[in-house]
Each structure stands twice: as structure tokens, then as C-alpha cells.
Design goal:
79% of the residues lie in helices and 0% in strands. The chain is built from 13 helices and no strands.
Length: 230
């Protein structure tokens, strides 16, 4: 049962592997270029596992930020996961001992796969979702390890390498746009984000935009689900 679920999940995670490999390398290089031991990159990827949060952590560590500022900034950057979790309550129901890990491993890319991918017939759905999450994190840890080791032994200018995070988000958005017929959620996300950015600026728009996105998605839920079925 587990092997069947693993084999079914693996092909769906290949795009994430390609993204996480290079993004993880970028993170590892960024951290070690600030003078930190490569083991910190591996430890952060195992225990924190939040791409944008880890890139933010590099700058906070390098800048000597205090605990309060670090906590506030981390919350702001990752606040979207509050809404991710709410929408996963149904899928995570009945996960048993796997549920805590599913909550911990809910990154943007894993969330996207869990929303758009269904377990094939005859494959245990819960193990299928679990292996998607586990494979995704293993890719991130692998990439971070390569990048951290490379950054420790090969010295080069890492300026601009953290743009890999932005590039990955763009690729995921384009892929979802092309594979999903209903574009209402994507359009809501783009329009609301732009409006929030104009209203409150780049430092505060994330939480505001996520709140309005959630409200709109709930308000248009029946219409969105109706279009998805047709």
C-alpha cells in the first residue's frame, strides 16, 4: 500500500524537485556566504522548512535582528499559511499520526499539489498526500545541503541569488494557470495582491491581501466549484 502510494506520488513532485533543487542551493549558498557553517542550512531545512522564511532568516541573522523583530517579520512573511491550513482541514481529517507532519510540511508548492492532484484509483489517498509532502521536503533538504557545501568550499559573489524564490513562484503560477481551467482563484489572487500593495505598501500587504483573498474565495466558493466541475 505504501509503496504503491509512493510510486503514484513521485511523478507529481518532479516539478517541485527541479524548483527546490536550485532554490535550496540558492539558500545554502546565501547562508554560508554570510559565514555560517553548512550544518546550519541543513538543520534549518529540516526544522523550519519555509523557503521565504529561511531566506528572511539569512538576512535577519546577518543583520543581528532581535527576537521580537524576528518573530514579527517571520509571522508576516508566513501568515499565508494560516489560510492554507484552514482550506486543508478536510483533506487532513483522518490522517492520524501523519497529520502533525502534514501541517508542518505545508509549503506553497506542496499546498499547490495537494489542491490540484488526486490520488489514482486504488491508491490510498492519505499515504499519497503524505508522500507528496515528504518527497517535497527531501528535495528542499537535498538542495540546501548541496548549496551549503558548495558555498563552504567555493567562494563567489552570491548577490541576487535569492531571486530564485521569486522565479519559482512565477513558474508555479504559470503551471497552475495552464493546467486548471478555472482561473477565478488566480485572478482574485493577482488583483487583490496588487490593490493591497498599492494601499499599504510592500511591508504590510501580505496579511491584508490574504484576508481579502480568503473572504472572496469563500464568497464565490459555489461559483468557483461550479466552474471547476464543468
Amino acid at each position: 500500500m505504501k509503496k504503491k502510494a509512493f510510486r503514484a506520488a513521485f511523478p507529481h513532485t518532479i516539478p517541485v524537485f527541479l524548483g527546490y533543487l536550485f532554490l535550496g542551493i540558492a539558500f545554502g549558498v546565501s547562508l554560508t556566504s554570510k559565514g555560517y557553517h553548512f550544518m546550519w542550512a541543513i538543520l534549518m531545512s529540516l526544522t523550519i522548512y519555509a523557503g521565504s522564511g529561511q531566506f528572511l532568516g539569512v538576512n535577519l541573522l546577518a543583520g543581528g535582528a532581535n527576537i521580537i523583530n524576528t518573530a514579527v517579520m517571520t509571522f508576516m512573511v508566513n501568515a499565508r499559511h494560516l489560510f492554507y491550513g484552514l482550506s486543508m482541514l478536510g483533506k487532513f481529517k483522518g490522517m492520524g499520526k501523519k497529520k502533525p507532519y502534514m501541517i508542518f510540511s505545508l509549503t506553497d508548492e506542496t499546498y499547490s499539489l495537494l489542491c490540484s492532484t488526486k490520488a489514482p484509483e486504488g491508491v490510498d489517498e492519505k499515504w499519497f498526500y503524505f508522500f507528496i509532502a515528504l518527497l517535497d521536503q527531501s528535495y528542499w533538504v537535498f538542495g540546501s545541503t548541496i548549496g551549503a557545501l558548495a558555498g563552504s568550499f567555493i567562494k563567489f559573489d552570491s548577490t541576487g541569488i535569492d531571486f530564485a524564490m521569486t522565479a519559482l513562484f512565477v513558474v508555479i503560477f504559470v503551471e497552475q494557470w495552464e493546467t486548471v481551467k478555472n482561473h477565478i482563484p488566480a485572478l482574485i489572487g493577482v488583483v487583490v495582491s496588487v490593490i493591497a500593495l498599492l494601499l499599504v505598501g510592500p511591508d504590510n500587504f501580505i496579511v491584508l491581501s490574504m484576508m481579502f483573498m480568503l473572504a472572496l474565495l469563500l464568497g464565490f466558493r459555489q461559483r468557483i466549484e461550479g466552474r471547476t466541475r464543468t
